[in-house]
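Q: Could you fold this chain for me?
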Amino acid sequence: MRLKSSSASLIRKSQRINRMVIENRIFFVTGFPRSGTTALARLLNASRSMVCIIEGNVINRFRGVLSRRQVLNEPYEDLCADLYTTVYKNFFKTARYHQNTQLIVSPPTLTSFVEAFRQDLKQVSDTESLLARLCHRYFRMLGKMTDFRTVGEKVPDYIDFPHILYKIFPTCRILFIQRDPRAVVHSILNFIRNTFHLFAVPNAFAMAFSWLIRNKTMDHFISNHPGLTLKIAQERLKSDPKDIAERTSEFLGVSLDAQMTNFAKHMMQTSTVKNWQSEMADEDIMAVEGVISQYAEYSSLYPCHADPLCNPYAQKAASLTPLSTCSIEKISHIINNAVPLFRDRKDKQIMGLTLLQFGDYAHRQVDFDRAYLLYSKSEKYNFSQPQFWFKWGELCFDMKLLSDAKKHYTKALSLMSGNNYYKFLSAKSLYQLGRIERLEGRNRSAVDFFYQSLNVFPSFYLPKQMLKIIS
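A: Sure. Below is the predicted structure, expressed as structure tokens.
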């Protein structure tokens, strides 16, 4: 008995040591969208000492899966299908992003990973413990699949919750890239002219607030956890990628090799970044500067072209800035005081899109009551915005307000009808309606919605998985 006990203890100790080794190899690349995270990840991937999955977003997806288990009590098969899709997408669909290797996992390995999750669902009730197990297992699998000493993920969304990354992986390293908000907003507004993305809205003032909220979150984390994060200026990555290659390699504890150095030289020769100073509309510049002028640390880092006292957006921004830190009880009062500053129809649309950013951020922080209040306050300003109705539907779904979620998804669909720009959002709305039907026991109706989703967007993998389960 003593020998068996000793062996079990040794195994547990070995598992802890293995976990520590894996943690020491883990890093994350994050930053606000259109800030240069992809360029940085590709630079890292040029090295033969590390690999960075681009847009894996596994921790965010894992959180979503486990939240559904906790709140919605979804069938285990549905949760496992979502997990399978997430991992499959990362290992099979993102392999092209790495210059040196193909990240291909065998079907038995993937099946084994999902089966371990299925067993955890049955045996572990605590959601935080489940999330930690899932994330450790994922990165351990990634490490075993490759010969790399250092493995990581590039996900802009992680800017919303660096504290969760730290809680799961206390010894991880975070590479945070920050870019001039005017350049970011200019890039976003150009990007979404022809390509829909759920994070973005076509308004400079609203997107500037989104940048501000999230960068403040990251900067606050850095000040509270010194040494965990390397902050990189996108402008420096563009002008001197070799310097960034040297700094990131040293920070991550890997050697700077010839492949990474050569790729840095290639980046300098092929860099093509839009110039906001010559291309951005004056009104959009004023809108962004009106927002960043509310915080001295950002207005000094990114000096405004115009005097804030003469900027018509500065007073509007000052009226809404308290929403980022106020208690939920003060939200209505702050919005009511701001309303007179947003007079005409255009102003009211700006206000609605800005409140949407605050609501979306609260939702991502799992502050559901705050998010719901912000969405309800902005409804009358966002009535014709399909993106708003979809996001409110997502919040209601997460809160298990299924009848409200159904109503909001349906409203979003009515506003997107026949518009190819919103093709994928239409497919997601139909998929979500199918999930609601399944949760309420109407499988036949759920199947209809899943097929409709695939008709709109044939490559959408999740409804395919759900149809396999139901059939």
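A (continued): Confidence is low (pLDDT under 50) at residues 1-24, 94-103.
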